[in-house]
Amino acid sequence: MRKERLAALDQESSIVLRPLRESDIAAIIAIDERTSGKPKPEYWRRKLTRYVQEGQFQSDADGSVLARVAEAEGTVVGFMVGEIRRWEFGLPYCGWITALGTDPDRQRLGIGRRLLAELLDYYREKGLEEVRTIVEWADGDILQFFHSMGFVRGPFVELQKSL
Ligand SMILES: CC(C)(COP(=O)(O)OP(=O)(O)OC[C@H]1O[C@@H](n2cnc3c(N)ncnc32)[C@H](O)[C@@H]1OP(=O)(O)O)[C@@H](O)C(=O)NCCC(=O)NCCS
Known about the structure:
Elements: H1 3-13, E1 15-19, H2 25-36, H3 41-49, E2 52-53, E3 56-57, E4 65-72, E5 75-85, E6 94-102, H4 111-125, E7 131-132, H5 140-148
Parallel strand pairs: 6-7
Antiparallel strand pairs: 1-4, 2-3, 4-5, 5-6
């Protein structure tokens, strides 16, 4: 096995997944800014603080939201938010991935795979049969990630119109 691969496996084993805390939000804002190139602090604060009470993440009473971060040596290196939605696009129940990101310096170490695996297990436990997300066609890296995780093109078509 190559030396780099061994080093990567070593790093991967030191990464732990845990529930989101309010104090993680700044790190998530920073990771997203580095991966997308656009700062969106208000968006993340609004999206994530909805689920935080007394500093700890609380899912809705019906357990419809799961938020996790990946931590390495006390630093947040990845995050994921999933939401179970009822009747979105006419689907009685569906699990959605609404946010997923890995620190650019820690990508390709299996962090995204581990975060996603935890979400999929959660959805399976909840009895869901499908999980969906939306990504840009032009974003080859993200498409590659989801394809390699077994995702295929779904039955919906996005429509838009210039105004
Ligand atoms: C998509 C993303 C979360 C993947 O995170 P990651 O921690 O690097 O992913 P992993 O290391 O677990 O990758 C698992 C597998 O996915 C595939 N993959 C991941 N990134 C890839 C890339 N850039 N190109 C090709 N394949 C890729 C590979 O098959 C990889 O396995 P391998 O490294 O053994 O070959 C990360 O690239 C990211 O944060 N992108 C920007 C944020 C974003 O747009 N998120 C999606 C919004 S829903």
